[in-house]
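tokens incoming
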């Protein structure tokens, strides 16, 4: 019997070490224990994946949570799940289609009319490496949803966020932004041969640049904005890549995926951290890789590119920036 003790012990050590290594690579849990009782939180794309887990984490901390989703059946189901698991009954579903400027304006108008405050806005929803689709308004889908939709939504809610200060905006981006480039001559891929990977990277770079310029514009307002890469997670976001469904990936790269790919629960920790951590009060315009602040790609720190992207984004979504910082929606230029 004793001859089995050493192999079993060694196996236990290997398994234990692997689990610890995975936890280290994944970045771990949100270190903050702060609660957010009385605060209103909006999470886009919250019916599944990282968004749903972020909403769950913030509901546990006592927030009034609004799940903003396109598919209302899934959104209502997610809200019900979160209410049941957290016993927080202040969790509600609202319709928001980020591929429709009309829907974004309607959602924002309803929030402004019905909510006393908005303390935390988590711009989480995303489309990744889809076919060459366009939004309702004719924008390339990834640029339209990942950047322009959240750009308009955030601007429309800025007065409410300022009135609720100190408040926070969290923009979920991706490490893929480092491979991105903003092509001002063809932002919506009307002239070039479509490259879904390049389009995704451009959209995520735009999110980081938006974060930088918005932070500059919000100085002294009490509203902070930061961007984060949550890590690679096993969610529905990657459904268009085919990576998770590939037999080769499953058999050959399975161990690597197991080590590097996070669960949605772990991938939601950075968003939760940026939303609640008391030590981040006043921190703005930064990029976080997981729970750690890091420097983004060089183009993401180019203030001229950020300002130019802001102006072009405002033009595309029909947003007029008046004197001061208030915004007004115009009719969309065709």
């Amino acid at each position: 019997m004793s001859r089995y003790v050493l192999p079993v012990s060694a196996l236990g050590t290997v398994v234990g070490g692997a689990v610890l290594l995975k936890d280290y690579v994944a970045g771990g849990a949100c270190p903050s224990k702060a609660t957010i009782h009385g605060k209103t939180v909006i999470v886009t794309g919250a019916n599944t994946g990282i968004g749903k887990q972020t909403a769950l984490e913030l509901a546990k901390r006592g927030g009034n949570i609004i799940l903003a989703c396109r598919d209302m059946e899934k959104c209502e189901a997610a809200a019900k799940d979160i209410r049941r698991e957290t016993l927080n009954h202040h969790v509600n579903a609202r319709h928001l289609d980020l591929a429709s400027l009309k829907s974004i304006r309607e959602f924002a108008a309803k929030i402004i009319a019905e909510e006393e405050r908005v303390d935390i806005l988590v711009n989480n929803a995303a489309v990744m490496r889809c076919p060459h689709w366009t939004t309702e308004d004719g924008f390339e889908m990834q640029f339209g949803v990942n950047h322009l939709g959240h750009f308009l939504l955030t601007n429309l809610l800025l007065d409410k966020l300022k009135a609720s200060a100190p408040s926070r905006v969290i923009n979920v981006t991706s490490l893929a932004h480092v491979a991105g480039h903003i092509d001002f001559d063809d932002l919506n891929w009307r002239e070039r041969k479509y490259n879904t990977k390049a389009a995704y990277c451009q959209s995520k770079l735009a999110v980081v640049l938006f974060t930088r310029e918005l932070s500059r514009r919000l100085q002294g307002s009490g509203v902070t904005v930061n961007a984060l890469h949550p890590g690679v997670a096993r969610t529905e976001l990657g459904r268009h890549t085919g990576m998770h469904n590939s037999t080769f990936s499953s058999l050959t790269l399975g161990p690597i995926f197991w080590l590097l790919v996070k669960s949605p629960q772990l991938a939601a920790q950075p968003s939760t951290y940026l939303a609640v951590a008391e030590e981040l009060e006043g921190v703005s315009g930064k990029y976080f890789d997981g729970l750690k602040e890091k420097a983004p790609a060089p183009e993401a720190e180019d203030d001229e590119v950020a300002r130019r992207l802001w102006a072009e984004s405002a033009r595309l979504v029909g947003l007029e920036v008046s004197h001061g910082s208030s915004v007004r929606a115009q009719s969309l230029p065709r």
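note: Strands lie at 40-44, 64-69, 91-95, 120-123, 167-172, 223-229, 287-289, 292-294, 319-321, 327-329.
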